[in-house]
Design goal:
The complex is a heterodimer of chains A (about 240) and B (about 550). With about 240 residues, chain A is an alpha/beta fold. Helices cover about 25% and strands about 25% of the residues of chain A. In chain A, helix 5 (about 80-85) links the parallel strand 4 (about 70-75) and strand 5. In chain B, helix 1 (about 25-30) packs across helix 4 (about 85-100). Classes of the chains: A alpha/beta (about 240), B alpha+beta (about 550).
């Protein structure tokens, strides 16, 4: 069987033998700075990676994989900004949002389990019980999906990424525009990820291809803002301006 | 007569069948958590419909009265026949088959067929495909299944009953020695077939081969059309000769609901009947539907319409499910917030907006690298449909980026399966559009916020879109932050021609810093003399 066919079968979740092999499981790509934070150089299939502190960090984490054909679902985050996701490099045509994943724990669990069956990445922002979180992590492991609990306590996560501080550039007193920000991200975890790591990330960065290996801090220079200064709309009606 | 095929040229009718023996019993026992070593039987209308192998060994037979069966085997666990249960529990099995061989057709709970070309080519040989399928089903569902290969649905089903691989083109030889009773499969419940089998047996035609040897002309003249179909099956041919796809004149089906439907359960009933009609309609033409238009007209003349797209051809149940979900959605919404229909639905119409050959969505059609993506998309689609089944069609949304100025209006959230059309043309110029980056958290209904000057008063915007005073503090989500930077305001003057939806206001970017130095950037909008949060750059 050709290599690509084997990869396809793995993607399908076929073959219990695959779980027993010692070969490193396939990792989904992430942008360079984040790859350095993860012990596998990417999001290992079957792992649970908690994200805290920044929606943009969550979206940036999912970006590279969706660009390479993976599907991502964001559960329980009704205010997730799809436009920001697109700007951070997420292929939004492969992004599904499930804002209300159910009325009770049972429904939430069923919904997330169903999504883990078909999606490569599932972000979950709905709090669940410890028992449910264990079941869902196990499901992700079994289905070779990556579970990303966002801003919810998750006892069994392999790695926890926390955005600790943010510095904005571009905005001044009364003029300018938000252009980019520097986010400090800390990683803590179990096993290979026990040693805490830290990196800085410039968002929105250039959507570069992931590169292997640990990236030392500080990180890349801020990318130029993609847009010209804001054009201001002229008054489109002839009405006298009044206070708004 | 069939023509011998070379190994490379696989008959497009060559079919793989996956059969779960005694499915109604297996399903009933599984739901009741009954261990497989205990005898069990499913009873419908007082007669045994199916029994487990253990019960069979005890002398229980299909067609026995319930009392007689219990007399034979006093510890027999008896379950009532329940088609819904059969179908519900079969779904994981079908999914398991589908994971290895997309494009399956569930013939009935317990039997799945799929054109063999894809799996055979993919796994190298029919034997390895069969082995893979049986293992996969056992691992993922714990269900015992058998696989068979032959030309056509009928022969492949019989092959699955025996667990054999009939090489392409050898189907007639495989069928010839089998008994004539095979034409009447009890699970199909075809009264006419039973009568025909009885008649043929009395005429001395005891095997399929003997029946197939009778010239078709003679069968047609003596027994009629139904017997011609059975004769074709006995000869290893499909029921109907396959014709090339031709655009059929009218594929839509319509049904008048009398009395009009305003309850979900009644809607489900109507959906089922109509879905079956549509499917039969399409199947007669060798087609399957991959994009289904559902139209409903209410008594007040409201027209409701929605398109459902599916990665795989819809089965009648698939059509019925989607119609049911859709009607459910419309009716529930109508009751809840009155944005839905105001009256009961009296006319329902299904338009197959896109049809494919029933075999079109096979593994083989995604060559090379594209295949992975196609399968990823299909798996995701299946998961989304699954979630829609759990939570309703509007629970799974996919964003479509379009034109507009604010971060909210530039995104349209489309329920999965609907057409992905942007709300506004993204290629038009949108003066006043906010440049990137956009807020990662957006508020479709702007959230409350206070923007205060140094004296604690509201910061006012003039009609010329200017701030009167410097903003000093921003209070959001119970936290007060010092304003360290801001920009704007940019006027928002939209749809001034439309009195109802007109929006006049101003947008402002504000960067706040908490006492601990933590920075948070906000996108504020002022309309109607009040500030609101449209987005948080978190």
């Amino acid at each position: 069987m050709s290599r690509s066919a084997t990869a396809t079968l793995t993607a399908l979740g076929v073959g219990a033998a695959g779980e027993l092999t010692t070969a490193p499981a396939q990792a989904l790509p992430v942008r360079g700075e984040l790859a350095g934070l993860l012990p596998w150089g990417g999001l290992r299939r079957g792992s649970t990676v908690s994200v805290r502190g920044s929606t943009s960090l969550l979206l940036a984490l999912m970006a590279a994989a969706t660009g390479e054909g993976c599907w991502a679902a964001v559960v329980g985050l009704p205010r997730c900004g799809a436009l920001a996701a697109a700007e951070l490099g997420v292929a939004v045509h492969r992004l599904a949002l499930v804002p209300e994943p159910g009325r009770d724990q049972g429904e939430v669990e069923k919904t997330v389990a169903a999504l883990l069956d078909g999606f490569d990445l599932v972000a979950l922002a709905t709090p669940v019980t410890a028992a449910t979180s264990r079941k869902l992590s196990a499901r992700a492991r079994h289905r070779k999906a990556v579970l990303l609990p966002f801003a919810v306590p998750w006892p069994g996560s392999d790695v926890e990424l926390t955005a600790t501080s943010t510095r904005w550039t571009g905005l001044h007193t009364g003029h300018g525009l938000l252009t980019s920000r520097t986010v400090t991200v800390e990683a803590t975890g179990r096993g290979a990820a026990t040693r805490p790591r830290r990196t800085t990330l410039v968002l929105p960065g250039d959507n570069e291809t992931p590169r292997p290996g640990l990236v030392s801090l500080p990180s890349t220079t801020p990318s130029p803002p993609g847009n010209s200064p804001l054009p201001v709309a002229g008054p489109s009606s002839s009405a006298t301006p009044r206070a708004v | 007569m069939t023509v011998p095929h070379s190994a490379e040229e696989v008959n497009p009718l060559y079919t793989l069948a996956v059969w779960c023996p005694d499915w109604p019993v297996v399903a009933a026992a599984a739901e009741a958590s009954l261990p497989p070593q205990l005898p069990a039987a499913v009873v419908g209308a007082g007669e045994v419909v199916t029994c487990s192998a253990v019960a069979r060994a005890e002398g229980v037979r299909r067609g026995m009265r319930r009392r007689a069966a219990q007399g034979q085997c006093p510890e027999l666990a008896v379950f009532e026949y329940d088609e819904v249960r059969d179908a519900r529990l079969f779904e994981p099995v079908a999914t398991a088959v589908e994971e290895l061989a997309p494009g399956i057709e569930v013939v009935r709970p317990g039997l799945v067929v799929v054109a063999a070309k894809g799996p055979v080519g993919y796994f190298g040989s029919a034997e390895s495909a069969a082995e893979r399928l049986v293992d996969h089903i056992a691992v993922h569902t714990g269900v015992e299944a058998q696989v068979g290969f032959a030309d056509g649905l009928f022969a492949s089903t019989l092959a699955a009953h025996r667990g054999v691989v009939v090489p392409p083109g050898r189907t007639r030889d495989f069928l010839a020695p089998l008994g004539i009773h095979e034409l009447d499969q009890p699970a199909e419940r075809r009264e006419d077939r039973a009568a025909l089998v009885d008649l043929l047996r009395r005429l001395g035609l005891r095997t399929l081969g003997a029946f197939a040897a009778v010239p078709e002309r003679d069968v047609a003249t003596r027994f009629g059309r139904a017997a011609v179909l059975a004769h074709r099956l006995a000869a290893g041919l499909e029921e109907r000769p396959r014709s090339r796809r031709q655009p059929p004149p009218e594929l839509s089906v319509t049904r008048e609901l009398d009395p009009p439907v305003d309850r979900v359960d009644a809607a489900a009933f109507a959906a089922k009947a109509l879905a079956e009609r549509l499917h039969a309609h399409l199947a007669d033409r060798g087609l399957a539907c991959t994009r289904l238009g559902i139209r409903a007209t209410t008594e007040n003349g409201e027209e409701l319409h929605r398109v459902w797209r599916c990665a795989e051809p819809l089965t009648p149940q698939g059509i019925a499910d989607r119609v049911r979900w859709q009607l459910d959605g419309w009716l529930t919404r109508g009751r809840l917030d009155r944005t839905g229909p105001t009256a009961a639905i009296h006319l329902l119409r299904l338009d197959p907006e896109e049809v494919v050959d029933a075999t079109a969505l096979q593994l083989g059609l995604w060559p090379g690298a594209g295949r992975d993506q196609g399968e990823a998309a299909e798996r995701a689609a299946r998961a989304m449909v699954h979630v829609q089944g759990l939570l309703g069609p509007d629970a799974v949304l996919t964003p479509v980026l379009g034109g507009g100025r604010g971060p909210v209006e530039r995104v349209r959230l489309v329920p999965w399966g609907d057409e992905r059309v942007p709300a506004a043309d993204p290629d038009q110029p949108w003066p006043g559009q906010l440049p990137a980056p956009s807020p990662a958290t957006v508020f479709a209904e702007p959230g409350p916020v206070a923007l205060l000057d140094s004296s604690g008063a509201d910061v006012v915007v003039t009609g010329y879109a200017e701030l009167v005073v410097r903003p000093h503090r921003i209070v959001h989500g119970g936290r007060t932050r010092q304003v360290v930077a801001w920009s704007g305001p940019w006027p928002v003057d939209e749809r001034w021609w439309d009195a109802e939806n007109a929006m006049r206001g101003a947008r402002l970017q504000v960067l706040g810093a908490a006492a601990d130095g933590e920075e948070q950037a906000f996108l504020l909008i002022r309309a109607g003399g009040k500030w609101a949060v449209e987005g948080v750059y978190d």
